[in-house]
Every structure is written in C-alpha cells, then in structure tokens.
Amino acid sequence: MHFKVGEKVRFLSETGEGTIISFKNEHNVIVEDETGFENEYPIQQLVKIYGDQTDAIQGGYDVELADDSALSPTKSGEEVSEIVQRKGYWEIDLHTHALLESEAGMTSGELLNHQLFELKRFYRTAREKHIRKIVIIHGVGQGVLRGEVRHFLEGQENVSFYDADFREYGKGATEVELYYQ
C-alpha cells in the first residue's frame, strides 16, 4: 500500500490513529498520533483510513462510512453481512471468511478496514432497530481486531461492553449493551 504525507492512518499493532508527517526511509514513516506525539512506524503496520469516519468514531448514527469502492463485495450484497438474530440479541461474525466472497489480493490492512466497515454498519443498523444487546465475534488472533472493536465502542455513547460468555465464544467475542433514552 502506498502512503502520502498528510494521510490519516490506523495502527495494526495498537489502538489509535494518526497522520503521516514524513518518511524516514522506504520502509518507515513518522506519524503524529491523536495526542500530538510523533513516532516512527513500519509501513506494513499501518492501515489507511478511507473517507471521513469521525462521526462513526464519535458516536454519530447517520455516519459516512469508509469508501466502499475499495472493498470487495460482501456475501449478502447491500445488507449487513452475517447478522444472526438470536433470542434477545443480534450477533455478527467479523472473521473475513464470513464477510467476503474471497480474500484474494487483499492486504491485511484492507481486510481490517473491511471488517471495521462491517462493524460500523452493523452497529448503526442495531441502533436504528433499537436492539438492546449485540455480540461481536472478532476472534482471538493477535488482538488487533479486538482492539479496534473496543476502540470504536469506547467512542460510542450509551453503551457498555465486556467479554462475551466464555463458554459460548471463548475469548473471541465482545458483548455490548445498548441503552436508549
């Protein structure tokens, strides 16, 4: 993936985001994070943020999501992928094999961006339908997707979240309670 000075990026190895301010060499860039600190990152540890996602991060419901022209089609077309309606709650599986027809040709950063796109679309739909409880299956892996899911949820209003039932999901899911006024 090619980056330019001034582009907004997310980190694969930690939560948060920043802006590329310079290139150290062909493999590393200097990024100013949201707190104003400048740090060096390997290019392969960055994911470009497409479009303006500030509303989605800050709790807006009518959000402009990532530029979906760069994403592969989902298995179910226009509908939110892989929603399972259980008794009393909704569940979504964010594993890429559950969301995409094929992962061929996609970088890990593009796959993560697609997973976050589906998460935000799922969350918005659950809010619109006044669902009170959702479960987000993110898997265990290296914890990158789990960190991004939790970072997103921390920016939402009227929610609480915690590890989902270990007996049913192991350590790979987050349960979210949605509150309405």
Average pLDDT, to the nearest integer?
A: 79
Uncertain stretches of 5 or more adjacent residues = 52-80
Estimated structural class: alpha+beta
Order of helices and strands: EEEEEHEEHHEHEHE
Counting DSSP H or I runs of 4 or more residues, the number of helices is: 5
| Whole-angstrom Rg | 17 Å
The CATH architecture of the largest domain can be given as 2-Layer Sandwich
Proportion of beta-strand residues:
25-35%
What's the domain count?
2
**What name does CATH use for the topology of the largest domain?**
Ribosomal Protein S8, Chain: A, domain 1
Instruction: Label the overall shape.
Output: globular
Would you give an account of this structure?
The protein is α+β, with helices and mostly antiparallel strands and 181 residues long. It folds into 2 domains: 8-48, SH3 Domains (SH3 type barrels, Roll), CATH 2.30.30.40; 69-178, Ribosomal Protein S8, Chain: A, domain 1, CATH 3.30.1370.110. 25% of the residues lie in helices and 28% in strands. The protein has helices at residues 54-58, 96-99, 108-128, 144-154, 166-169, and strands at 8-11, 17-23, 28-33, 38-42, 46-48, 83-86, 89-93, 133-137, 159-163, 173-178. The strands form 2 sheets. Strands 4-3-2-1-5 form a 5-stranded antiparallel β-sheet, with helices on one face. Strands 6-7-8-10-9 form a 5-stranded mixed β-sheet. It is globular, with a radius of gyration of 17 Å. The protein starts with 7 loop residues before the first strand and ends with a strand. The model is unreliable at 52-80 (pLDDT under 50).
